[in-house]
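During the no-cost extension, the postdoctoral fellow (Dr. R.K.) reprocessed legacy sequence entries with the updated structure-token encoder. One reprocessed record is reproduced below for audit purposes.
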Amino acid sequence: MTPVLQAKGLVKRYGALAASDEISLSLPPGEIHGLIGPNGAGKSTLIQLLAGATFADAGSIFVDGRNMSGVGLRQRVQAGVSRSFQTANIFRQLSVFDNLLLAVQAQTGSSLRFWRPRDEDVALIEQAQALAQRCHLERRDWGTPAGLLPHGAQKLLEFALALAPHPKVLLLDEPMAGMGPDESANMTALIESLRGQLTILLVEHDMDAVFRLADRISVLVSGRIVATDTPSAIRHNATVQAAYLGDDGAKRSELSC
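Re-encoded structure tokens follow.
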């Protein structure tokens, strides 16, 4: 089976620092793949490389077997790769629904103009509504400027924008960052609802969520993947345990969830 997303020998250096050091990763169709590691391990750099926001110094990236190493963000989205950010990347001055309309319009090529009545493009409206409902965006908030939403709702809106291009691969960079328990549970349920529908690479510090959602987990330490396995095997992997030990030898709580 051809992987939906595959990285081979990715290297990215910033001066003497190897943020990505010979990283290889293979994600089959429909997998939720967790990516964990200590702060500064290179997780966000890897997301940037896979999304086409920056380019590797060496190595290759394939989407459905097609070499995408030399193409940028727009071409990666067209190939089926979409992403979210640690900080919600939304149009803050526009309403929630206008954010969704713009995202759907970009995908469909609709000729909608916002100074004309919206009911001139019923199909576009219906797609935006379906996206809002799928991502648990409250109807009462649809007319609210996106920047005025609570943090959790902003992250849900960004998630919806990432789904608008109907991606094959969704790269999630800390989707639960800054969320409270209820908001995290809502986001976890949303990710779970996509299981089997697309391939997801999940970078997240909420270990409860990662171990609950992931089919497999890769552990990144100092720019290198030191282990890839099932959540159960990763939890008991000695190399992984060493990566999460403090200087005093006390095991961090992340892996004891």
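Residues 5-256 form a domain with the Rossmann fold fold (CATH 3.40.50.300). The chain has nine helices and ten strands. The remaining legacy entries will be reprocessed before the final report is submitted.
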